[in-house]
């Protein structure tokens, strides 16, 4: 950074935009003035022109000096007016280079639309970069916090085994079981972080990806019925088999698994889960409802944040690492969909995924309605 600034300081002040503009405007004004004088001399004739110069006498050079100074001053002020927004942008960008989290922003320039647009674009870019920096800092902090406890547990058990635990079969079995459990939890955490990173970087071409919703949802529903027979399952289907959305089938399946897993984990008393499909206008809606512990109103805005858990007492219980809903939000947004949630504490929660119908499906249905 210092090297770059030193290189900038080596440039002569005569090569700056302001100096070039001042020189150009000065030459331009002088040429205009000379043109006006020559035009007057032609119009007035040589005799009248000679009479005028004779009347001015020795003041002629004073008038010429004042005219040149006035032209220089006017050119300098105009150049300053043109270059000032560029200097303001440069100042803000240097501040951003020194401190990426600076609050400095480029002010609006009402008399120069192009530079004003550039400044506002830089403001937006700086805000986005700062949001990414904050997200990265939060992510590193959260991951460090999440990994600190299992690493400490594994280290403690290994130290115990190294000292004397390996000679006690009961302690050895307990330490190995606890260590393997914590390693498994770290493995799940790392896999979820990778899934979240993929979801954030997901790019979609809606013209190339189309999935029929009903078969995927029905397959996942039957799989969960078989795996969890202790639950009461309900499936309300208001879609036809041709209804499709622009999402990969494995991603749609992943979203359903995350929501259904959450419904199972937080349904401790009333073991019942409802799954529903419906079409609302040009949207397909997929609903997952449970009747578990529910979510408090103050937590609804944060349940999609990374590592956020509604019940802090379940941090090391089967409630997960708090990344599932973050993955859902990122992935649904990448496919142009929406996530909606309704919940009441003690009454359960209802999550609804909304995806736009594919263009072909919307056109076909509208044509059928017209017929």
From TrEMBL:
Domain Histidine kinase: 142-359
Entry's transmembrane regions: 20-43, 63-84
PROSITE patterns: HIS_KIN, PROKAR_LIPOPROTEIN
Highest rank taxon of the organism: Bacteria
Pfam family, one: HATPase_c
Keyword Transferase in annotation: yes
GO MF term list: kinase activity
Gene3D superfamilies the UniProt entry points to: 1.10.287.130, Histidine kinase-like ATPase, C-terminal domain
Localisation per UniProt entry: Membrane
Keyword line: Kinase, Membrane, Phosphoprotein, Transferase, Transmembrane, Transmembrane helix, Two-component regulatory system
Alphabetical list of InterPro entries matching this protein: BphY/WalK/GraS-like (IPR050351), HATPase_C_sf (IPR036890), HATPase_dom (IPR003594), His_kinase_dom (IPR005467), HisK_dim/P_dom (IPR003661), HisK_dim/P_sf (IPR036097), Sig_transdc_His_kin-like_C (IPR004358)
Reactions performed catalytically: ATP + protein L-histidine = ADP + protein N-phospho-L-histidine
EC number in record: 2.7.13.3
Predominant location category: membrane
UniProt name for this protein: histidine kinase
């Amino acid at each position: 950074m210092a090297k770059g600034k030193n290189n900038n300081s080596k440039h002569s002040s005569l090569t700056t935009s302001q100096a070039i503009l001042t020189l150009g405007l000065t030459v331009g004004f002088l040429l205009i003035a000379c043109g006006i004088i020559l035009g007057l001399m032609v119009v007035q004739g040589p005799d009248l022109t000679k009479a005028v110069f004779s009347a001015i006498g020795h003041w002629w050079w004073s008038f010429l000096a004042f005219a040149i100074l006035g032209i220089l001053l006017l050119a300098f002020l105009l150049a300053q007016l043109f270059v000032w927004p560029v200097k303001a942008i440069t100042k803000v960008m240097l501040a951003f280079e020194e401190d990426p989290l600076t609050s400095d922003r480029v002010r609006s320039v009402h008399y120069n639309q192009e530079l004003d647009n550039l400044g506002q674009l830089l403001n937006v870019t700086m805000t986005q970069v700062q949001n990414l920096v904050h997200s990265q800092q939060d992510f590193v902090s959260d991951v460090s916090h999440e990994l600190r406890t299992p690493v400490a547990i594994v280290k403690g058990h290994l130290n115990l085994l190294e000292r004397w635990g390996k000679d006690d079969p009961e302690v050895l079995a307990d330490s190995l079981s606890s260590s393997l459990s914590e390693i498994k939890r770290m493995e799940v955490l790392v896999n979820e972080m990778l899934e979240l990173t993929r979801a954030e970087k997901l790019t979609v071409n809606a013209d190339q990806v189309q999935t029929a919703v009903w078969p995927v949802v029905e397959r996942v529903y039957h799989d969960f019925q078989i795996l969890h027979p202790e639950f009461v399952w309900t499936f309300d289907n208001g879609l036809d088999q041709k209804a499709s959305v622009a999402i990969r089938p494995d991603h749609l399946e992943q979203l359903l698994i995350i929501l259904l897993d959450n419904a199972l984990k937080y349904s401790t008393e009333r073991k019942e889960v409802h799954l529903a499909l419906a079409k609302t206008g040009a949207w397909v809606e997929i609903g997952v409802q449970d009747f578990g512990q529910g979510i408090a109103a103050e937590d609804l805005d944060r349940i999609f944040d990374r590592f956020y858990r509604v019940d802090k007492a379940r941090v090391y219980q089967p409630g997960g690492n708090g990344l599932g809903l973050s993955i859902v939000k990122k992935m649904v947004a990448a496919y142009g969909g929406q996530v909606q949630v309704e919940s009441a504490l003690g009454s359960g929660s209802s999550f609804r995924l909304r995806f736009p119908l594919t263009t072909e499906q919307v056109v076909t249905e509208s044509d059928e309605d017209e017929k």
